[in-house]
């Protein structure tokens, strides 16, 4: 039995080493790392990504698949839920770095299974909602950049892509502003700005990226 970390590296802040360090800091002992570079999670199913396909071939019953968050496992609600259930059917346990969620198909208790399946649906829906916000913000950032070629981009954001993603994840889980600020190392004011207008916060990141 082995523990495999799957990472999707699509931005400068979400480096492979960073994601592995985060997983190890959360208590995981990683036996192998599988990573897709420069692949859009919004438009490409896991099974269609080069290294994503390899996961389906290499993971066996009893293995553990570690991901930063469930959005790494698909492009939308249906894709994420299908992927999680397929791995569980094969006896693979899925665990997330953020908040330490565990999805295990071995339970035979009907109530535990119902709670697990409801949680999968909720997490997948939240991941899709996040992806939709990001797509809208990306379009807004592109349009803004076209409208001001060669002009000053404004003040550089005080948060990285990874911090932005973490704030959005924690907000979605109902965490308080002070707790999020302490966890991410950002100021309360920055967390409030991301919370109040995530599309604008995303657009700023897009402009600088």
Structure description:
The structure is a single chain. This protein has 209 residues and is an alpha/beta fold. The protein has 8 helices and 5 strands, in the order βαβαβαββααααα. The chain has 2 domains: 3-110, Resolvase, N-terminal catalytic domain (Rossmann fold); 124-208, no CATH class. A 5-stranded mixed beta sheet has the order 2-1-3-4-5, with helices on both faces. The mean pLDDT is 79.
Q: Can you summarize the main beta sheet?
A: 5 strands, mixed
CATH superfamily of the largest domain: Resolvase, N-terminal catalytic domain
Main sheet strand line-up: 2-1-3-4-5
| CATH topology tier name of the largest domain | Rossmann fold
In brief:
With 209 residues, this protein is α/β, with parallel strands linked by helices.
Question: Which terms would index this structure?
Answer:
5-stranded mixed sheet; globular; Rossmann fold; 8 helices; 209 residues; alpha/beta; 2 domains
Please specify the SSE layout and strand pairing.
Layout: E1 3-9, H1 16-25, E2 32-37, H2 50-58, E3 64-67, H3 77-89, E4 93-96, E5 102-103, H4 110-147, H5 161-172, H6 177-184, H7 188-196, H8 198-208
Parallel strand pairs: 1-2, 1-3, 3-4
Antiparallel strand pairs: 4-5
């Amino acid at each position: 039995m082995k523990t495999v970390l799957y990472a999707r590296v699509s931005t400068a802040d979400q480096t492979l080493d960073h994601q592995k360090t985060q997983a190890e800091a959360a208590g995981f002992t990683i036996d192998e790392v599988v990573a897709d570079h420069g692949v859009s999670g919004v438009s490409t199913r896991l099974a269609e990504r080069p290294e994503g396909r390899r996961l389906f071939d290499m993971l066996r019953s009893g293995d553990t698949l570690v991901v930063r968050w469930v959005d790494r496992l698909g492009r939308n609600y249906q894709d994420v839920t299908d992927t999680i259930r397929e791995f569980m059917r094969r006896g693979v346990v899925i665990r997330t770095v953020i908040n330490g969620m565990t999805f295990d198909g071995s339970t035979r208790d009907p109530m535990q299974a119902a709670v697990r399946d409801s949680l999968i649906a909720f997490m997948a829906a939240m991941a899709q909602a996040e992806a939709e916000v990001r797509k809208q913000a990306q379009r807004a950032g592109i349009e803004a950049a076209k409208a001001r070629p060669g002009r000053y981009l404004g003040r550089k954001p005080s948060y990285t892509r990874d911090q932005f993603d973490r704030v959005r994840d924690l907000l979605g889980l109902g965490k308080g502003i002070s707790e999020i600020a302490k966890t991410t190392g950002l100021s309360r004011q920055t967390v409030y700005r991301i919370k109040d207008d995530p599309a604008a916060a995303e657009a700023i990141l897009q402009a600088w990226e």
